[in-house]
Structures are given as C-alpha cells and as structure tokens.
Amino acid sequence: MSFTPKSLCIFCGSRNGNDPAFVEEAKKLARAMAEKGIELVYGGGSIGIMGVIAQEVLDHGGRVTGVIPEFLQKHEVGHSNLSELIITDSMHNRKRTMFERSDGFIVLPGGLGTLDETFEIMTWKQLRLHDKPIVILDTKDYWKPFQDLVEATISSGFAHNSARNLFSVAKDANAVFDCLKDIPQVDEKVFTSHL
C-alpha cells in the first residue's frame, strides 16, 4: 500500500543523545518533510531532538503542530513559535490528539517516552484500531534492540509472525519516504491468531 501523507507524527527524544548523527538525521528528515509539504505533528517540546526537528521544519517553511500536556508546558519546555500548539490535560490525551492529527508515524531515537509512544501505536495497529504506517528511523542501529525484542515475542510464541509487518525500518531520512511508498500489509492473524 502506498500513500502520500499530509501529516506525519514524529516520536523522538527530549534529549539530543550522545551521537551527533541523531540530530543530523532528524534535521534531514525535517527538511524533506518541509520540502514535500508534509505537516509535522509532534510532542510540542523545544528541547532535544523534538525541538531540533520542529525548528528545522519551521526554518524551511513547513507547518508544525505541537501537542503538549499542561504540566510540561508549565515547566516551559514547550516550543513558543509553532504553527499551532495544542495543550492537553493529560499524557493520554496528548497521544490521542497526535494520533488523530496524523496520517502516519515516524520513530526517531529517544528515551522511555518514545518507547511508550511507539509500543502504544504499534499495539493499536495490532488490535486493528488503525492501519496507519509506522516507520522506525534506525540511525546508527539505535533501534536494533527494539527489533530484537519484537523478534523475541514472535519466536517465544507471544506474537504472530505478522507482527514484523506492523512497522518498517529505514536506515536514513531518505529511506523513510521509500518505506511510505511500500507499506507492508498486516495479516489479520496478528490480532486473531490467539483468540
């Protein structure tokens, strides 16, 4: 399945990480999104890779919608110059709003919050609650342990083989858009095989 997204949600870190490649690849993705007219939907922060990617999209003429819970906004980590900033009353509503405003999801390196968002959006896809594409940008093999964990769930009998097709993996920013042109089909058995 191939489609042209109008908006993409980016899950990524509120830190830059310790390898400059994480920031550089995020900037490349941001520039490509702006050039293609794809709106960025993200967690609304001004710090870490979150802040970098938002600013880069804005600097290249793109549209950015941030979604941030009120308690984080009070800590002044919210970006102050976005196209649109949505303030929610909880983390749950933040994730729901980002989901509703996005045509697909790109996962960049990040911490526990990024893991939480990624697992939740994959689980929703496994449960057939959506069929939006999920692409993991695997800069410097950051997401290799994640892929290994998914494989472990399959080999240990806790997930169907089709769980592999819940997401695609891109090695660089350009490959993200190649993945969006060739979205894997997820067999219904990813949900029903154990029912």
Structural class of the secondary structure composition?
alpha/beta
H/E element string? EHEHEHEHEHEHEHH
Shape by Cα distribution: globular
Give, in spatial order, the strands making up the sheet with the most strands.
4-3-2-1-5-6-7
Summarize the structure.
With 195 residues, this protein is an alpha/beta fold. The protein has helices at residues 20-35, 48-59, 70-74, 91-100, 112-126, 144-155, 173-181, 189-192; strands spanning 7-11, 39-42, 64-69, 84-88, 105-107, 134-137, 168-170.
Strand-helix topology:
Blueprint lengths: L6 E5 L8 H16 L3 E4 L5 H12 L4 E6 H5 L9 E5 L2 H10 L4 E3 L4 H15 L7 E4 L6 H12 L12 E3 L2 H9 L7 H4 L3
Parallel strand pairs: 1-2, 1-5, 2-3, 3-4, 5-6, 6-7
Structure notes:
This protein has 195 residues and is an alpha/beta fold. Helices cover 43% and strands 15% of the residues. The chain has a seven-stranded parallel sheet, with helices on both faces. Helix 5 links the parallel strand 5 and strand 6. The longest helix has 16 residues. The chain starts with 6 loop residues before the first strand and ends with a helix. The relative contact order is 0.16. The model has no long low-confidence stretch (mean pLDDT 93).
